[in-house]
Amino acid sequence: MNLGGFDLSFPNILSGLFTGFLYGLLSIGLVLVYRASRFINFAHVAIGIFAASIFGAIVAKQGLPYWLMFPVGILAGALIAAGVEWGFVRRISDAPRVLGTVVTLGLAQFLIIFGLVVNQSNASGRLFLMASSWARRPSNPLLSPSFCSPHSFCSRCHCSFAARVTD
Asked: What is the pLDDT of residues 138-158, one digit of tens each?
């Protein structure tokens, strides 16, 4: 269904719901950390990105089962968060708030860069399509642009959802 130029198909609605759910969880986490420490922890999201990089590297490069390694990825994120709390946040808890903000900004940059070192396939900039590849899309309705995004990973049509459905 198309309403006002927006594609309101089921996959797009589902994707929007999951994206909104993740934004909600991230915002709740930021509020909880702020209420506990009285500064905004900008490393909050970077901790999750780094844990996801470790998880992705283990699953993709070592060939280990996804669902078996999923708890390991969650545990890695929890251990990294505990390390950030004990190594950085507690040391600057009595310092001015701006120092906590600056330290967590620096830590966020470090974790994101180190996450790219651990798992270089997380860099999506090289995955964006050229204009000519959009014109060569198959005519299969499952591979329509409503399923596609320019940063997904299918080698045939650059559509991760359709690759799971058709392969």
From this structure: 444 444 444 444 444 444 444
pLDDT of 54-74, one tens digit each?
888 888 888 889 999 999 889
Three-class DSSP labels, 89-127: HCCCCCCCHHHHHHHHHHHHHHHHHHHHHHCHHHCCHHH
Beta strands in 6-145 (DSSP E): 6-7
Name the β-bridge partners of 145: none
Taking the C-alpha atoms of residue 15 and residue 47, their distance in angstroms, rounded to an integer, is 23
Q: Which residues pair with 3 in a beta bridge?
A: 6
Nearest CA to 43 out of 98, 101, 108 is that of 108
Report yes or no: 77 and 47 within 8 Å, Cβ to Cβ: yes
**Unique residue bearing structure tokens 């651990």:** 118
Would you list the domain boundaries of the chain? 2-126, 127-167
CB 154 within 8 A of CB 164: no
Element (H, E) at 2: strand 2-3
Q: What is the pTM of this model?
A: 0.62
Share of the chain above pLDDT 90, in %: 20
The CA dihedral of 90, 94, 97, 98, to the nearest 10 degrees, is -90
Q: Do you know the residue count of the chain?
A: 167
